[in-house]
Amino acid sequence: MTKKASDNSSIYHGVIAEFSTSDDLIHAVNESRKKGYVQMDAYSPFPVHGLSEALGHRPSNLLVAVFCGGLIGALTGFGLQYYLSVIAYPYNVGGRPFNSWVSFIPIIFELAVLFAAFTAVFGMIGRNGLPRPYHPVFKVDRFEGVTRDKFFLCVEADSGEFDAKKCQAFLEGLGSSYVEIIEK
Max Cα separation, the chain? Predict the structure, then answer.
């Protein structure tokens, strides 16, 4: 079953195809990359091993950002305690030195974890483009099957030499059960 539309690539988001198994989806992704399509997105009801690599996703640099956030948190914790204990209120408590860094460790640790956690959450939200209450694939009536047992591959319109009709015919030839051209 195929839904037809006129061929004007500037008004399309892409072409989406439905597959019944994860192996069919990975095969379709590999064939699409061989064909020259690079901007693709895959949707599945559960994580599929090897799908990210097949789509060409690189490892995220979010790990570095989280480490930097934790380091900034640790330095902030040390700096605040140093300022309070040495500069602002230098009280001699129990005969220890003003810069008793060993007693600063719990706060340093807590602020490192706090800053790292916030960096991870906001970094993930930013990298995923969230919040996104609307996406063009939501117009596809059969897309709700992705939450149960269907697998979808969307070849996006900004993917190399995109021609909606040719891409639709290509995806139909890969054994998909349904193909639709998605408008923006």
Answer: 83
Number of domains in the chain: 2
The tens-digit pLDDT sequence of the chain (184 residues) is 554 444 445 789 999 999 999 999 999 999 999 998 989 999 999 999 999 999 998 888 999 999 999 999 999 999 999 999 999 999 887 888 888 889 899 999 999 999 999 999 999 999 988 888 888 999 999 999 999 999 999 999 987 678 899 999 999 999 999 999 999 8
Cβ atoms within 10 Å, residue 126? 11
The answer to whether the predicted template modeling score (pTM) of the entire model surpasses 0.70 is yes
Give the angle 88-92-98 at the CA atoms, nearest 5°: 60
Q: Which of 127, 148, 171 is the last residue of a domain?
A: 127
- Domain endpoint, select from 103, 127, 151: 127
